[in-house]
Amino acid sequence: MKQQPREFETFTKLVDQVLAVPHSVIQKRMEEHRAQADKNPRKRGKKRGARKSPASSRGSDDRA
């Protein structure tokens, strides 16, 4: 039973470390990782590319 509080403390410290990182830093790291992953020619599954926005496929709503 002594092990459980120690595990809780470890978990709490880990969560505090994750939450201490600013969202902008996380977004930047994700973009860097995606850019690196997109360069992999052996990537399986769907390839990322330029996406069409849903609004561009429907046409213009600027009618006056």
Q: What is the makeup of the main sheet?
A: none
Order of helices and strands: HHH
Distance between the termini: 71 Å
* H/I helix tally: 3
Please characterize this protein's 3D structure:
- The protein has 64 residues and is mainly alpha-helical.
- The protein is 59% helix and 0% strand.
- The longest helix has 17 residues, at 3-19.
- The protein is elongated and about 50 Å long.
- The chain starts with a helix and ends in a 6-residue tail after the last helix.
Task: Quickly list its features.
64 residues, mainly alpha, 3 helices
SSE layout and pairings?
Elements: H1 3-19, H2 23-38, H3 54-58
Short description:
By secondary structure, the protein is an all-alpha fold.
